[in-house]
Structure formats: structure tokens, C-alpha cells
Design brief:
438 residues, alpha+beta, 4 domains, 14 helices, binds D-malate, binds zinc ion
Length: 438
């Protein structure tokens, strides 16, 4: 009854989708693991409409799942309890690039690749980049504090946000889009990384970085992860280093089968490290000099931009190739670099009979552990991660998938503080119930 009344009222203030066949596209996650349902998808066109939708939901006591590009991997944007989906995809406004401040204001629904085109036309760039750039949105990136491939140089999304505008659970709007780099007037409301549980992000003032068009990319074939870590230690002497991504022979075989791409190297290697440098001046000479000092089994250097994108594809196509193989259990962990070799030695026995595809962001010790078939070994793997002082979720967030293990990475005092913040900002648990804060 309340839901019916809310749906009717929402449809008077915003565009909605109620046709189940269309709404279904908002109810399933990227991996196919999470499949929910909703009576209504609200598609507001501006912040005022988002506020109206939230006010109605608060008055009717109806729960809401905020959603961006729906590229999340932990079930954090899927209506598993029949909630209203509040899609921010129509909030696609992009302000002028402020070259002096190196900032831009973007609506929550702006897709990362559209943001990149906009700011690159002005000679600047956004510091966060990853494979889902054609679908992931600014709001979702902030809500999950997305990481990706350039964290070693520019940090996670958190480091690239100056301020956020958000709608709270009661429909009130809080806005920090003024772009002041210095503003110590109290604490920051914790929307970044809140996964839609504390407010609905509607826009953001983003920090930009100089556009570095001179790039040099190489793929290293290596005997194992310890050798990759040794190479990384040397490569880090380069100021221009921007990316150090790794994958393994098993994943590469899957990617090649899925994409039809030829082998990138003459021989197959247990581990591959994809590195990229970017600088105002051609970084190739300094990268090549360092590469010569490494003991890699094989090194392939990209000749031009097309070649660079071809090398990226071997790494970036992992997610889709794995999805095509089956519905994966996706674990996204981070370990101190010194702990990685020992953890990786233990991993095969922890995952039992599952097919294991491992890739990730080496500089942050961020492993994407993808498992297909067999018994779900999440509990054993995450406990082992915690033993090494690692994080049970490096960059994908907690969502619904990881809440049972959050206590492995967060202390009782921290979890109590999480609950207190949630209680203060969303006392009726209308925003993304079941996600992050149990
Ligand atoms: C990536 O690094 O490609 C993403 O985190 C996606 C994934 O882990 O599947
Ligand atoms: Zn990743």
C-alpha cells in the first residue's frame, strides 16, 4: 500500500520506469550474481527531483536503492528487497572546466569516459581510470570510492574529489560544490565510500590533473609474483610511472579465447606486468632504460597508441572474459606487498576445486580473486587475508556481498561508529538497506 502510494507520487515528480521488462535492467548486477526486483525505477532529471523523490520515500517509509551505471561488483546497487531504484543516470550535467583551479563540476550520472572527453578537450585529465569507463558514473565512483589503474599516481576517487552535493534520507540537500581547496569549517560528511547508505550523491566538484599525452607502455613476462614485485620496486624510481597491472597465464588464456586476440608475447609466462609511464615529455627513453636493467623473461614495448590500447585490452578484458565463463565469486582484497608471495602460496589450497583467475593492481597489493565452480571459499580466503593485515575489500566496496566479513577489516569500535553515523543520517534505514552497515 505504502509502496503503491509512493510509486504514484514519485511518478508525478520524476520520470519513472514500471514496465518489469525494462526495470529488469536495473535489477541485475554486472556479474549476474545479484538479481533483485523493483516496482519502480525513478529517473529524476535534476537534484530538485531527486530531493522530491527522497522526500516522498521518507514520508511513505519506502526504502530506496541509489544506482549509477550499475557496474558494481558487490551487489551494492541491486534492489534485493523490492526497493525503489533511484537511478542517477539522467544527471549528466558537466560544468565548464576551470583551468586555473583545475576543477570541474559533474552530475552524478556523468559516465567516466564522457568526463574524460570533456576535461581532455581542455588539456586536463581526471586522475581515476578503469576498464568500466564507458558505463561507470561519477556518483557511483564516489559512492564506492573507486580505485582502478592509476591509484599509484593519483590516489583513489577520494583524493580526486573537492566537494559533493547529496540528498539526505529526508530529502534535504547538502552541497559543497564551491571548489574551495581550503575550507576548514567543520568535518566532511562521509559520502565518499558510503555506498549509498548515507545520502544520494547528485553532483561533485572534481579535482583535475594535467593531461599527459606522451605515454610509454610495456608488457613484461615474468616467472612469478616475487619477480613482478622486484620489477615494481625498480620501476617506482620513475616519476612518470602511472600504471602497474598484473595478470597470469590462466587469465590471459581466457581473455584470448574470449576476444580472439593473439598472444602478446612469443612465449607464455606465469605472470605478466603491464606498466605505463606518462609525462609532458616522452617517457619512453627513461622507461626503456629501466626495463633494460630488469630481469624479465620477455618484454614487449608498445610502438604507438593503438599498440598501447591493444596491450591494455589483455588486462582490461579479464572481467568480461571471466563473466562469459560463468558467474564468478569475486574477491577484491589488498595485502601489504611483503605479504603477497606467502598469501599467493596459500591461495590454491584455500580455493579448493574452484577455477582461479587472478589479476589486479600490483602497486596497491590489490588482488582480484575470481573463482568459478566448486565450493565458495570466501570465508577461508578472507580470513587468511585478515591474518596478513589485509583488507577484505580493496576497491569494490562492501555492498551486500562482503558485509558478513566486514568485522575482519574493521574493529568493533569502528563498526559501532559506522552504525552511529548511519543512525544519525538515516535513522529509518531507508537508504540502501542491507548494504555496508548491517
Ligand atoms: C578491474 O580492475 O578491472 C576491476 O576492478 C573489475 C574487476 O575486478 O573485475
Ligand atoms: Zn580493479
Amino acid at each position: 500500500m505504502r509502496m503503491e502510494r509512493a510509486s504514484q507520487r514519485i511518478s508525478q515528480v520524476a520520470r519513472v520506469v514500471t514496465d518489469p521488462s525494462v526495470a529488469a535492467g536495473y535489477c541485475t548486477d554486472f556479474t549476474g550474481r545479484w538479481r533483485g526486483s523493483t516496482p519502480l525505477v525513478a529517473l529524476p532529471g535534476d537534484t530538485a527531483e531527486v530531493a522530491e523523490v527522497m522526500r516522498i520515500c521518507a514520508e511513505e517509509g519506502v526504502p530506496v536503492v541509489p544506482q549509477g551505471g550499475n557496474t558494481g561488483l558487490v551487489g551494492g546497487g541491486v534492489p534485493m528487497g523490492g526497493e525503489v531504484v533511484l537511478s542517477l543516470r539522467r544527471l549528466t550535467g558537466l560544468g565548464p572546466v576551470d583551468a586555473a583551479a583545475q576543477q570541474v563540476t559533474a552530475g552524478a550520472g556523468v559516465v567516466l569516459s564522457a568526463l574524460q572527453r570533456h576535461v581532455r578537450a581542455a588539456g586536463l585529465d581526471f586522475g581515476v581510470d578503469f576498464a568500466a569507463r564507458d558505463a561507470a558514473t561519477v556518483g557511483g565512483m564516489i559512492a564506492t570510492n573507486a580505485g582502478g589503474e592509476r591509484v599509484l599516481r593519483y590516489g583513489t576517487t577520494r583524493a580526486n574529489v573537492v566537494g559533493v552535493e547529496a540528498v539526505l534520507a529526508d530529502g534535504s540537500v547538502v552541497s559543497r560544490l564551491g571548489g574551495l581547496a581550503k575550507d576548514n569549517t567543520g568535518f566532511e560528511l562521509p559520502f565518499t565510500g558510503s555506498e549509498g547508505t548515507l545520502g544520494v550523491i547528485t553532483a561533485a566538484r572534481l579535482r583535475l590533473v594535467p593531461l599527459l599525452e606522451r605515454r610509454a607502455t610495456a608488457l613484461l613476462g615474468l616467472p612469478g609474483v616475487p619477480a613482478a614485485l622486484e620489477a615494481l620496486a625498480v620501476l617506482r624510481s620513475l616519476d612518470s610511472l602511472e600504471m602497474a597491472e598484473f595478470f597470469q597465464a590462466e587469465g590471459l588464456r581466457l581473455v584470448r579465447g574470449h576476444t580472439g586476440l593473439p598472444s602478446p608475447t612469443r612465449e607464455e609466462h606465469p605472470v605478466y606486468l603491464l606498466v605505463e609511464c606518462a609525462a609532458p615529455r616522452d617517457p619512453a627513453p627513461e622507461l626503456h632504460a629501466v626495463l633494460e636493467s630488469l630481469h624479465a623473461s620477455e618484454i614487449v614495448v608498445a610502438a604507438d597508441a593503438a599498440d598501447r590500447h591493444r596491450l591494455w585490452r589483455y588486462r582490461e578484458a579479464h572481467t568480461e572474459a571471466i563473466n562469459a565463463r560463468g558467474v564468478p565469486v569475486k574477491l577484491d582484497v589488498a595485502l601489504p606487498l611483503g605479504e603477497l608471495p606467502g598469501f599467493l602460496d596459500d591461495l590454491p589450497s584455500l580455493v579448493g576445486g574452484c577455477e582461479l583467475y587472478l589479476f589486479g593492481h600490483l602497486a596497491e597489493g590489490n588482488l582480484h580473486i575470481n573463482l568459478i565452480g566448486g565450493q565458495d571459499p570466501t570465508d577461508a580466503v578472507l580470513r587468511r587475508v585478515a591474518l596478513s593485515g589485509g583488507s577484505i575489500s580493496a576497491e569494490h566496496g562492501v555492498g551486500r556481498a562482503k558485509t558478513p566479513w566486514l568485522h575482519l577489516s574493521r574493529s568493533p569500535a569502528e563498526l559501532a561508529a559506522f552504525r552511529a553515523v548511519k543512525q544519525a543520517l538515516d535513522p529509518r534505514h531507508l537508504l540502501n538497506p542491507g548494504v555496508l552497515v548491517p
